[in-house]
Amino acid sequence: MTEAQTVIGHVNAIGRYRLASLRKHLVLCLLLAAVVLVFLADIATGPALYGLGDVLKTVLMPADAQAQMRVVIWSIRMPSALMAVVVGMALATAGVQMQTVLNNPLASPFTLGISSAASFGAALALAFGLSFIPVAGDYIVAVNAFIMALGSALIIHSVGLRRGSSVQTIVLLGIALVFSFNTALAMVQYFANDQAVAAIVFWTMGSLTKATWPKLAVTAAVLVLTIPIFVYRRWQLTALRLGEARAASFGIPVRRLRLETLVLISLLSSIPVAFVGTIGFVGLVAPHIARMLVGEDQRHLLPASAMIGALIMSSSSTVAKVLVPGAVLPIGVITAVIGLPVFFYLILKGGRETW
């Protein structure tokens, strides 16, 4: 190959890279626009239907809106709509990083038992007022959920470090944890009083109707604290997809990276569970859709997964309010209906098409 041909080859490679990067940025812009539109549709949907134009005006200029509409939008619908976006981003981010550090296409906080563990910890607080930390105060449910989720994640991490452990081993362990914590949750319901059982059952289905500004602030704070860490380590996480040996050859502390990431995953998955209940399949489905759109590079995969998670949650919130007139269905049921077909597809295909 002549020097001229080498130069032309490099130029063509740079051109293809820039074109692919431009396409990925365009996808991210379109996802952001879709999230904004679905978010506005979520706010506009309810017992009283409002036009998107009126909703947008009320959101941007609340002082000029009608008093009744301003109260409905800002005091009732805005917290739940924003919570849907934040929870979707948190669960999708947790899912994509869990799949990355465990090298498992079926890994997510829901399928590997972390959400079930968080549910059990939160149920102990709801039913009996038990707290793993005496000074938890008003956030006893969130603290219990986080501690149990972290314990479940550490179990998965420790098994994954054992010599001879495989993807199948981790999946089977996750299934065992799901059944174990679901059984423990059933025992809590059996011994709890009727009022506590009703609260636990309603909570385990997932609902945004009890979202408040303080709960939203805590959930958003967790997201704001964890996302920059993942962005800072985007190259390490991308390199980890090449395999542990290759990542270690680049000087990446694989074990420490995996452990720290699992702690952040526990935080991202437990806080939404504590505030809005069990939401399944968002952390599994969103990362796979993102990979099909933008690939494995964490620079694009992380924001794409987060926005797709927000899009799924906001869409589910809207559907939950319009599917049955006069009633708001549990959002966990809607996300399960969306996620189950994708989950079955991944099982049947072995995850090869999207991994």
From TrEMBL:
Keyword set, alphabetical order: Cell membrane, Membrane, Transmembrane, Transmembrane helix, Transport
Membrane topology label: Multi-pass membrane protein
Family classification: Belongs to the binding-protein-dependent transport system permease family. FecCD subfamily.
Principal subcellular localisation of the protein: membrane
Subcellular location per the Swiss-Prot or TrEMBL entry: Cell membrane
Keyword presence, Cell membrane: yes
GO biological process: siderophore-iron import into cell
Transmembrane segments: 26-52, 72-94, 106-133, 139-159, 171-192, 212-232, 262-289, 327-348
Protein name stated in the entry: Iron ABC transporter permease
Domain of life: Bacteria
GO MF term (any one): transmembrane transporter activity
Coiled-coil stretches noted in the UniProt entry, renumbered to this chain: none
Alphabetized InterPro entries for the sequence: ABC_BtuC-like, ABC_transptr_permease_BtuC
GO CC field: plasma membrane
Source organism of the structure: Rhizobium fabae
